[in-house]
Amino acid sequence: MKFFLDTANLDEIKEGQALGILDGVTTNPSLIAKESIRSFEEHIQAICGIVDGPVSAEVTAVDFAGIMKEARHLSQLAPNVTVKIPMIPEGVKALRQCVEEGIRTNCTLVFSTNQAIVAAKAGATFVSPFIGRLDDVGHTGMDAIREIATVFDNYGFDTEILVASVRHPLHVTEAALSGGDIVTMPFTVFSQLMKHPLTDIGLERFLRDWQKVKGRT
């Protein structure tokens, strides 16, 4: 399974990259708005300079011509930019055109298996089901991941399942068990993956006992 950070914060991305287990980054307009930036393009380029893997940068246009104009522009910012395109009819048209032009894409705002199938048929590089938001409206978000994984396996789709809207570490475990290829998560969740109270207790005990050993020498 690949780990992406869902953030536009450069310090968080640098810290994640330093661990050596970060595979990519996803951003969106809301995450970008949280940061104090002078230039959107320069900020995306800065992120791409930190990580080697895919960096999702989202379009804001909702018509085919506008989406393609932004997609072409964003894809030129750095070799590892992936253009994030919403699951709307105009977006599906753009996904197919991006395939023709060799532009990698991440189809976002996916909430159903059918939407994921459409994105895969259009040639999206990644499809991003939002499991947390599905949970919020009374659905079991992880059911969508299991269904999408089954369909993609049945038909040999190359599109990778990028599990998004992750809220806690259990979502990461469930995504791995359900067939997700990638999980993108906030830095808080990413950090929690390495934590367990028994680890802290065990380390404290080992270090305390080691001090006793040192005291005898």
Molecular structure report:
By secondary structure, the protein is of the alpha/beta class. The protein has one domain (2-216): TIM Barrel (Alpha-Beta Barrel). 54% of the residues lie in helices and 17% in strands. The protein has helices spanning 10-18, 29-33, 40-50, 64-75, 89-101, 113-122, 131-136, 141-155, 169-178, 187-192, 197-216; strands spanning 2-6, 24-26, 55-58, 81-86, 105-110, 126-129, 160-163, 182-185. It has an 8-stranded parallel beta barrel with strand order 1-2-3-4-5-6-7-8, surrounded by 7 helices. β5 (105-110), α6 and β6 form a beta-alpha-beta unit. α4 crosses α5 (89-101), α6 packs parallel to α8 and α8 runs parallel beside α9 (169-178). The termini are far apart. The mean pLDDT is 96.
At a glance:
With 217 residues, the chain is α/β, with parallel strands linked by helices.
- Low-confidence segments, ≥5 residues, pLDDT <50? none
Helix content: 40-55%
The Cα radius of gyration reads: 20 Å
Please state roughly what percent of the residues sit in beta strands, choosing from under 5%, 5-15%, 15-25%, 25-35%, 35-45% or over 45%.
15-25%
The total count of strands amounts to 8
CATH architecture: Alpha-Beta Barrel
The CATH class assignment is Alpha Beta
CATH-wise, what's the superfamily? Answer: Aldolase class I
Average pLDDT figure:
96
Spell the H/E element sequence. Answer: EHEHHEHEHEHEHHEHEHH
Can you tell me the number of structural domains? 1
How would a crystallographer describe the biggest sheet? 8 strands, parallel, barrel
